[in-house]
C-alpha cells in the first residue's frame, strides 16, 4: 500500500512504546475503527482516560493516520501479509501488528459495508424552478440595484434509494449564464460520447 509521509509519520509515532504503551495503543486502534463506523462525528472519542498523558496534537495525528491506514487496507482488501508488511515498515513490533490485525478482522466487514454505501452516482436533476429577485439596498442601506436569481433544483439521489431533495442557491446574471453554458457543454459532451 502506498501511504503518504504524514500517515507514515503518524503510524511511526503510534508504534513508539514510549508515546503509546500497549494498552493506550489498543484503545486508540479500537477508537479509530469505532469513529469510522459512528453515525455522528464525535470529538469526544479521543477524550478517553488512557489518552490524558499523550499530547493532543500528536494523538489526533496518530488517530488520523490509523483511520487512513484502515480505510486504505479495507479499500484494497489487504490481507494479513500486506498489512503486516506495511506496519513493519513503520516500525510496528510483532505484538502491535497482531493486535492491529485482530481488531482489523473484527471490524473489516462493517467498514466494507460503510465504504460500499458511499454513492458513486451524482444526483440526477428532475426539475428546476427559478425566481428573479431584485435587491435595491443591502443591509447597510447602500443602493445595490442588482438582480439575482434564486434557483431550486429538484434532484433524485440514486444512493439513497431514489430519494428526492431540493438544492437551492442564488446567483447573479453572469453566474447563471456561466452555469447554463457549462450545462450546454456537458450535454454536448455527453451526446458525443454516446455516439461513439
UniProtKB/TrEMBL annotation:
Residues 124-194 form the COMM domain. It comes from the Eukaryota. CDD domains: Commd3. InterPro entries: COMM, COMMD3. PANTHER family: COMM DOMAIN-CONTAINING PROTEIN 3. Belongs to the COMM domain-containing protein 3 family. This is COMM domain-containing protein 3. It comes from Umbra pygmaea (Eastern mudminnow).
